[in-house]
Design a protein that fits this description.
2 copies of one chain form a homodimer. Chain A has 5 domains: 11-126, ATP-grasp fold, A domain (Dna Ligase, domain 1, 2-Layer Sandwich); 132-243, ATP-grasp fold, B domain (D-amino Acid Aminotransferase, Chain A, domain 1, 2-Layer Sandwich); 255-388, NAD(P)-binding Rossmann-like Domain (Rossmann fold), CATH 3.40.50; 407-548, Rossmann fold (3-Layer(aba) Sandwich); 557-714, Succinyl-CoA synthetase domains (Rossmann fold, 3-Layer(aba) Sandwich), CATH 3.40.50.261. The first copy, chain A, is an alpha/beta fold. Chain A is flat, with a radius of gyration of 31 Å. The two termini of chain A are 35 Å apart. Chains A, B: Keywords: ATP-binding, Nucleotide-binding, Tricarboxylic acid cycle. Chains A, B: This is CoA-binding protein. Chains A, B: One of its GO terms (biological process) is tricarboxylic acid cycle.
């Protein structure tokens, strides 16, 4: 058995890798030969079959006899990548005669397939018997870098694309989680009398492969396909290693401390310059000035304009360089063509951040123009927000550094969007639902500041309890993942990844690469990073609104208490959809609930108190649910009746929840309200008092609770 | 090749089936033996391997040559049950010599294994070669009756439960649709160089199996596992037939004409009796009277009460039998224990329908009480609605035969719910969103009237354009499917099936049975019946509201026109999620759109008109989209700006849509509105004018459009 290799890669391994790479590069190859790949596997602790290279039929017989029949024969030629297609593979070769005949046949086939192919010989390989076929692979993603992949082998799996990814390198625990991360995970546990596979052996291969690709940047794709996983080990039958010697340009990536220092100045500025401040109604530079002033920002505001003396009562300056004091951010409200010059002045002035509202850069094809801004920003160490954004809001400072409408519903949710339209939807929704917000940030083209910078700021921002982000791509997925992993331990991070159904295929020369859909990588990495993924804009908004309202549950036991049996069924469906555990009701607790409900009501879970009950029945059962320590969260199903009207229900529920909070009992409670229009007012009242409630929906309250649970689990709080 | 068997089953086949069943029953067996199953397959055109019994080695050779090599040889001896153990099986017998030698070897082995064994001979069986392993099966569902199933063979498929069902019997077209109905459908089309399977041969087996189980009620489960599907045919390698001689009790099922006659009297009554009418506030019998009166019902209202002379100004009667004129429905508002007696009087009076509001029947375990009501209803031919319901509304008659609040928002959507709570949610939602409703019906325990009765009524009801149903089960799934198939050709039928995530496993003795999850059967049969399945309560309500607002599209080409690029991406995601085709923009149309949008905007699809545009840009591009005949539906993405405020956008859109309608151009248009709170008013305005619009959501407008498309396709209109 092969163990996880040492944490420190030995000099001899490094030398071997260097030699293999140098040879491939010298020969103009973009892949390793099979024998080279085997050498690499040997030093990286990746078990492969015994093998040898036969130059002649006699060689083949000798090698086969040495390792024992049956064997597999495979063509070795740098030009022939798809060996099976070329008739270059013979399996189950059982005797010396067969080996001799097979050697000749493969050589003939190879020549017929590609007359110019450079044939190095025939690889004779020990034939692996039995076990479950799996694939272990690695790919390089433009945003996330090296990823390791795992799936079952075989054509069916290819058709179903049942494969899972993790950022490389992976720990043993992460590797083990991959084995459970495929739909067909049960296959590995022994079905229909077959033995379970050796999970540790597979995890070891995954760890070692991830280490290999992480340490060797030139390996851009890798396939172990198939790996035979048995009850007592696992062996890779075939290894493919694809190389790329062109190094990727690195994105600017300051360290955490540097990010924080700059982001604090940007998000909480003491002084703001507005470049292109205007007195003309309808102009962006006018809207920005008005929003700063009318929003109630208490810091210094410096309009910058080439000709004006004053803008809306504030003294104007010809250039930011003329402003007497320190300035933290400059909001740009000038056409694209003037931005570079103004940015240079911003740099010379030592301003921390440029809020680049102007469009007309990469999004319109003007990549050069944007690159120029980035170059200036690096020269002067300015952080850029945008270009092509609406600006940003930071409500604790009453700061509306944007051309949109002012916003004043303060609270604990920080939101960002890549797109302006989505930003406006956030503003409208927040105002309409009274969702308290700490910040709304437009990221636009993300020439510099992106989600990981924001995450790092919000991580340390006491005014923020949840971060909800709309994004279309990640400029640096790895930096995002690192930040999200850290931040999500403290605060929920919700992401709506737009473009998730993108049909864009990726060019790939490996099998794993061909299986790697963009969205599957995002899905797995976001999960690995502790992020709650929103499936729709409404999810993003409702999670941002509801998750901070709920206290963190202390355990997995969820109980439904409902006045409508029908709601109970739909709420149960929603629990399953959202991965919530409906507690199996202990006999004593069941009996306790039964005391409060009519004899034809149903205890168990859901607790069906039946429709005609007075407020006291809701009160008694919910109090019991809150008091009993075995229950960790409640889902309420309300049914509008004359005997318990909506607002009566709402007030009674708030009363009992507050009574319990006063005793130090604080559990998440969500509610679904079925009834006439008065339930809307009742839902608002409940929400304002810490009970996440929705009218005419059984799914949304449970989805919000599910999001809270997902976060609590990922943060290790459950 | 075996063809689909004749439509008329021959007498000899019927005789064979009768003989096989009689023998099995006489022997107390609940399955057929392998030779019996083969006989059945032969007459029903289900290909199984050829086989014959050889008494001598010469026989064996002759048989093998007849069916073609390779063959399998198997000992036939009543004493040798474990044939392989006894050395009594030889596979892959390739020639006459091998057959001759094999015959002798098996005989020798058998004698050595058990000298006393009575050897009948050697079974020679055609050996099936290669191909794709699939499963064809049949199960009996308590609600749907006989279903035929199809899936791939092998353990992995079992783990993934990738199997599809149809009601038996199936047509050739339905059978072919099953081949595309599994996740792994691609496997049948030839992947990685393998040949595609013979789809017609598989369809023939499915058709014939479905015919067999349909014609023979005693066959409750059937497995062909595996079936080897090749490029030139398909053969079942193993057949298992499970029998049950206990006939199921039939539910009362009137014919369509009978249903319609009664349902017309019930839903559009000329006279209503209220049994248990009360003058006491808060009593159900009081609420029902008030709702009838205040709702504005113009027919006769007859309160029934043992003592009162008058209720709310209406003359009261001691019994329905005392009422002078004809009565169409009696609404029951009395305790459960009095219902049976009153129902008998209702029967004697010749009343068409009993609206059984009272609870305390099957839902509380009182199954006997409910059965008693059903027996009375059959005796007098009364149709029962309920028991355990809120009653029903039929707005064209201003009829509120219910104890809930009156309801007056008239329109074209008919809704039903199995649960009272969901009924109240329907009322609240409808009132809040001004969704026009023709009927809301509570079905409760469904002792008699159920979804197929309602469907049949709504099919012929000119006041109804869409039927939306919440249900937890179907008492007669087959009757529902037949009605839904018929009705959905004319009007959309939307179903929210609650309890869809039920974990309840079903007891099954066949392989197919074990794979049959309740929800998978509902999923497939609802689809087969042309039903649009709602995934959540909100879906049900929004589809009921939005689908009738949209005209039926004339083709699949959908175009997105958006002011916000970010919304465009999310709307595209939603299109993929909802199975909508984003049209590939023809060059001339692309050029035409470009004329209206800024140079940095993006044509193609989505058409991104960019954010800063005036109302005329929205107007011009939408007009073009409506005018061009190649485009069949539009999705609009609006972004709130100063230059095009929400209500300006809404009015301009309505203007252009109405201008086109006046010209006879009517295409479905939906809109997603991103902006500050004013977009809510704009969305309402758009909705009222036939454009399905939602604020802060990209997913809902597209889901509604998707539902319309699903219906149009199922109804054969596309």
């Amino acid at each position: 058995m092969t163990a996880v290799i040492d944490k420190v890669t030995s000099q001899s391994t490094k030398d071997l890798v260097a030699r293999l790479l140098a040879k491939a590069k010298a020969e103009g190859r973009d892949s390793l030969t099979a024998p080279e790949a085997k050498e690499l596997c040997d030093v990286y602790g990746i078990p492969v079959p015994q093998e040898g290279l036969a130059k002649t039929a006699d060689d083949a017989v000798k090698l086969a006899e040495g390792m024992g029949f049956p064997v597999v024969l495979k063509i070795v030629s740098p030009q022939i990548l798809h060996k099976t297609e070329a008739g270059g593979v013979l399996v189950g070769v059982k005797s010396a005669d067969e080996a001799r005949a097979g050697f000749q046949k493969i050589i003939d086939n190879a020549k017929a397939y590609d007359a110019k192919a450079d044939i190095h010989g025939i690889q004779v390989q020990q034939m692996l018997k039995g076990g479950q076929e799996v694939i272990v692979g690695a790919v390089t993603d433009p945003s996330f870098g090296k990823l390791v992949a795992f799936g079952l082998g075989g054509i069916l799996v290819e058709v179903l694309k049942d494969i899972t990814f993790r950022l490389a390198p992976v720990s043993r625990e992460e590797a083990l989680s991959m084995l459970d991360g495929i739909q067909a995970a049960e296959m590995l546990k022994g079905v229909r009398g077959s033995e379970p596979v050796d999970r540790e052996a597979l995890a070891t291969i995954l760890v070692n492969v991830s280490r290999l690709v992480d340490e060797v940047p030139e390996i851009v794709e890798l396939d172990l396909n198939p790996v035979f996983a048995r009850a007592d080990g696992a062996t890779a039958a075939d290894v493919r290693v694809v190389l790329d010697f062109n190094a990727k340009v690195q994105r600017y990536r300051p360290n955490e401390e540097e990010i924080l220092e700059k982001m604090n100045r940007i998000m909480k500025p003491k002084a703001v310059a507005v470049i292109g401040a205007s007195i003309e109604d309808g102009k962006i530079g006018n809207s920005v000035m008005k929003n700063l002033i009318n929003g109630g920002y208490k810091g210094d505001i410096y309009p910058v304009h080439p000709k004006l003396q004053e803008v809306l009562g504030y003294k104007a300056y010809k250039s930011v360089k003329d402003i007497p004091g320190d300035v933290d951010i400059a909001v740009f409200a000038i056409p694209a063509k003037f931005v570079a010059q103004a940015l240079t002045e911003v740099g010379e002035k030592g301003i921390a951040g440029a809020i680049l509202i102007p469009s007309g850069f990469a999004e319109t094809g003007n990549v050069e123009g944007q690159d120029e801004l980035v170059a200036i920003s690096r020269k002067y160490d300015i952080r850029l927000m945008g270009p092509n954004i609406y600006g940003f809001y930071y409500t604790p400072l009453n700061l509306c550094a944007t051309f949109c409408t002012p916003f004043d519903v303060k609270g604990k949710a920080a939101l960002s969007s890549q797109s302006g339209g989505i930003g406006m939807a956030i503003i409208g929704f927040s105002r309409s639902t009274k969702m308290g917000v700490s910040a709304i940030v437009g990221l636009g083209n993300k020439s510099d500041i992106d989600e990981d910078d924001l995450l790092t700021f919000f991580e340390h921002d006491d005014n923020t309890q949840i971060v909800a982000m709309h994004l279309e791509d990640l400029k640096d997925g790895r930096a995002f993942s690192e930040a999200a992993k850290r931040v999500s331990k403290k605060k929920p991070v919700v992401v709506l990844k737009a473009g998730r159904t993108s049909m864009g295929a990726r060019a790939a020369s490996s099998h794993t690469g061909a299986l790697a859909g963009d969205d599957k990588i995002y899905e797995d990495v976001l999960k690995q990073s502790g992020v709650i993924r929103a499936r729709s804009l409404q999810d993003l908004l409702q999670f941002a609104r509801g998750v901070p309202v709920l206290p963190t549950p202390k355990g997995e036991n969820v109980v439904i208490i409902t006045g409508a049996g029908g709601s109970g069924v739909l709420l149960s469906d929603a629990c399953v959809d959202n991965g919530l555990d409906l507690m199996t009701m202990p006999a004593d607790l069941d009996a306790a609930f039964r005391k409060f409900i009519p004899p034809f009501g149903a205890a168990g879970n859901p607790v069906d108190i039946t429709g005609g009950e007075p407020p006291s029945t809701y009160q008694n059962t919910v109090r019991l649910g809150l008091e009993d320590e075995r229950i960790h969260a409640l889902i309420l199903g309300y049914w509008h009746t004359i005997i318990t009207p909506p607002m009566v229900f709402a007030k009674v529920m708030v009363e009992v929840v507050e009574e319990m909070r006063a005793k130090g009992i604080d559990k998440p409670v969500v509610a679904s309200l079925a009834g006439d229009v008065q339930v809307e007012e009742a839902a608002d009242y409940l929400y304002q008092h810490g009970i996440v409630a929705y009218p005419y929906s059984t799914e949304t309250p449970v989805a919000v609770l599910g999001a809270k649970y997902k976060w609590a689990r990922a943060a290790g709080l459950l």
